[in-house]
Specification:
By secondary structure, the protein is mainly β. The chain has six helices and 31 strands. The strands form six sheets. It has a 16-stranded mixed beta sheet that branches. Strands 18-17-24-25 form a four-stranded antiparallel beta sheet, covered by helices on one side.
């Protein structure tokens, strides 16, 4: 049996969405000549502003699993608004990664959810008609000398869905909502967006970045944050607005949850190139909506047993059948295929079965020893066989329960962030590829 030693260290609650720490005043061109990177910090790390020492490990995991359910709904939006070297810190909030950045002139520090499943960058602004509770003051656009409303006849406004004109007919209004009933409505505008770099002493200023100034917002948001920083594939995402400057490249390396005291990394531009021994690449598949990053998963292997996926309705067409997402905790697979996959994993493990109290994960084991033999699991994408880290194919639910971090979902298939741990994952939106390289992310 192909297997690996799995250390039963506590796993922190994982992140639903991605975030970046950005603080800058440097010119974009100068900073981007070298590329830039930022740290990604898990929500439950003692270094995170969201660390709650009173929560038990079991409570954190239970919350993470509930967030994963909401996250799947996030991929069914009811509507969509749809620097060369850069690296930034990402903080996970309630299973979501938060991103510190600055907006305006003079710059005002903001903490937003960094989300690979969203496009628009939006934040809560004054005056607020209806906003969710926020610890920090709302952004006041009247105090920024570089803030400008976007005309409702502009190409930026016309290119977005669910936009309209203000009552006086001068400025563009946006409206974005998500499958989990979260929403934001407000003014579409441009302002200076500032990023801080961990690879340079100089911050990076991005003038005339399209943002949403939200005056009517509500949903599943934490009071410590303000809005979303979209890292998706749509035209108004941060990645797309930076695209020519960063060559369409960004990457991240997520540390295993057993090493949550270490920072993960998010890289832009030349810092984001993934190459060298062990690197494999798979095509990005154009699909709708363009916000999401679609890949083709052909099979999964458990030990030496390879299980082939079938296309929808039994067809052989698998193209674009899975979304890769840094914000979803567990990996979801089609129901019928998941059943075969789970059975193959169960055949390799000789331990007493247990039940997940949340009933979210279906293959669980009781254990009393300090280690367990975990079968090797490989994801076979088109042109890329990706061996998953054995420390994150299972998740520690509590002191006596270990569960497979995969789940059945007939409607949507997602390659989640646990499966991506200790892989350097690089997106090249020019070549339209995603690359994977086995990497000890704790040493970056």
């Amino acid at each position: 049996m192909a297997s690996h030693h799995h250390s039963l260290l506590s796993l922190a609650a994982s992140a639903t969405t991605f975030s970046i720490i950005l603080l800058c005043r440097f010119t974009l061109i100068e900073a981007l000549n070298g590329g830039f990177s930022v740290d990604l910090i898990y929500r439950d790390s003692p270094d995170s502003p969201f660390y709650n020492a009173s929560e038990t490990h079991s409570q954190r995991v239970a919350k993470a699993l509930r967030r994963s359910i909401n996250r799947v709904n996030h991929f069914k939006p009811s509507s969509s608004v749809s620097p060369n070297l850069a690296q930034t810190d990402i903080i996970s909030n309630s299973g979501e990664y938060l991103m510190k950045y600055s907006v305006g002139t003079p710059p005002v520090a903001i903490l937003g959810v960094a989300d690979t499943g969203s496009d628009l960058i939006w934040l809560q602004c004054k005056p607020c008609t209806e906003c969710y509770k926020q610890a920090a003051p709302f952004f006041d656009p009247e105090m920024s000398t570089t803030y400008k409303s976007i005309s409702c006849t502009s190409s930026q406004c016309e290119s977005l869905r669910k936009t309209s004109c203000s009552n006086d007919g001068t400025s563009c209004q946006y409206s974005v909502s998500y499958g989990d009933q979260s929403f934001s409505n407000g003014d579409l505008a441009v302002d200076t967006f500032t990023l801080g770099s961990t690879t340079s002493d100089h911050p990076v200023s991005l003038p005339e970045t399209i943002i949403g100034c939200g005056h009517d917002n509500n949903g599943h948001f934490d009071a410590k944050g303000s809005g979303i920083v979209g890292l998706g594939g749509g035209t108004v995402s941060l990645v797309s607005q930076l695209s020519s400057s960063i060559g369409g490249k960004f990457s991240y390396c997520l540390v295993p949850l057993t090493s949550r005291e270490k920072s993960s990394k998010l890289n832009f531009g030349s810092n984001a190139v993934v190459s060298g021994p062990g690197t494999v690449s798979t095509p990005l598949v154009p699909n709708s909506p363009d916000t999401f990053y679609f890949l083709t998963l052909k099979a999964m292997s458990v030990g030496s047993k390879r299980l082939e996926l079938s296309g929808s309705s039994g067809s052989g067409n698998l193209e674009g059948n899975i979304i890769i997402d840094s914000g979803t905790t567990v990996t979801t697979l089609p129901t019928e295929f998941y059943s075969s996959f789970e059975s193959a994993v169960a055949e390799e493990i000789d331990l007493e079965r247990g039940d997940d109290p949340s009933q979210f994960l279906s293959l669980c084991y009781k254990h009393t020893s300090d280690s367990i033999e975990i079968p090797s699991i490989t994801a076979h994408f088109t042109g890329a066989d990706v061996k998953l880290n054995p420390d994150t194919t299972f998740i520690q639910i509590d002191e006596e329960l270990l569960c497979l971090a995969f789940r059945a979902n007939q409607k949507i298939t997602i390659f989640g962030n646990l499966a991506q741990s200790n892989l350097l994952v690089g997106y090249d939106l020019v070549k339209k590829t995603v690359s994977f390289k086995p990497t000890d992310c704790t040493k970056l």
